[in-house]
Design a protein that fits this description.
flat, single chain, 376 residues, mainly alpha, 0% strand
Amino acid sequence: MSNELASGTADAPVAAPPPSAPTSNSSSSDPGPVDLDQPSSGKVQAERARDADQRESEVRELLQRVRERPERPDAEPVAEHFEAPKSWRNKEAFARLDPELQREIAENEANRERYHAHRTREPAEIERQITERVQRQYAEQMQAIEQQRAAADQLFKMHGNEIQLFAGLQQGVQAFNQKYAGLTKESFAQIQQTQPELAAQIVHDHGVLQTAQAQLKELVERRVHRESVAAQQQQAEHQAKMGQAIQQQQEAWKQYADAQDKAFSAKFANDGADMGDRAARFMTDVIGVPQERLVELWNSNPLFRATETQTLIRYALRAYEMEQAAKNARPVAQPKPLMPGQGAPANGAGPGDLAAAAESGRMADYIAMRNKGAVR
């Protein structure tokens, strides 16, 4: 049995592992089993050679596991023979293998075939989806173009009727003027008396011209009315869309502003209710932002309304208030304690007078008060 197994290892393919699995190299010169369903190319041949080396290594590992596996009396019986995979060229060598080894090889080959079939179907599926999307977009574009062409044809037909009526009316006027050249009211009155039939013909021809002119006028008025109504409808739809967009924008802004204000209030809940008024006065009086501009930024600028910006303004305000408080605080100078045996300041010169003389630069008064016992 070991000789038979050794003779079949060169032709015994095992399913290739997933692409991330490491592959084993072999020095075998056999290119391995050939998959007749795949097209022949240099890259494919190289991949098949690597697969063959890997399969040979895996078959050897399977053989080693089969040899080392202890026999269990309670093990379930294994089928005597399995059908050789289609990638095996030497079917007889596969038939001489151990049945359990045949089963493992067959399962691995089935997994490998399913993997390669999936990899083959995946590009085809992507190509099919792209083709369907392109065809659908093309059909939608063609439908839109067809609708535009139909509208243009209808408009051209409407204007064409007007043009035809106008051309016919113009030709009729020219024919009337040529046929009755020099006709005046006086001559027509004379024709009515002398040639009643000609007068009736003149009246008929003139009535035809008036009818054509009335039809043309009515057609133009209808077209102008339709275009006016269409323009009004289009304007109304545009205004409705704009109003809806503005309403959505206002709702979105309200949600955003409320969320930012709540976040800021939760972060500085102990600042007091007058923090907003103090910040507004700080922005207008100290920073110099006009009141109108401040209101506009607060109600329309997302960056200005953001919690981070409010936090920056809050810290700037607190720093400014602390600075002003430090400037306005005037410490009261405490008199130094008298030395033993030293009496009270003479002539009513106190620490305030001595400090005032020093700050004003009156050194003579300062020295005189010091000589009299005044201390700061």
